[in-house]
Amino acid sequence: MYFISSNKNILTRGIKTVTGLIAGSLLLTGCMDDLESPELPPAAYVSIYQGSPAAPAMDVFANQNRVNQNPLNYTEVLAYSAFYPGTRDFRFSGFNSATSLLEKNFVLKADSVYSVFVTDKTAGIDAILVKDVWAEPKAEKTQIRFVHLSSDTEKVYLQASGVTSPLVTDSNFKSVSDFKELNKGNFTLTVKSATTNETLIQSGTLELKGNRVYTLILRGMKSETTGGKKLDLQLITNFINY
Question: How do the residues of the chain divide into helix, strand and coil, expressed in percent and rounded to 5?
Answer without folding.
Answer: 10, 50, 45
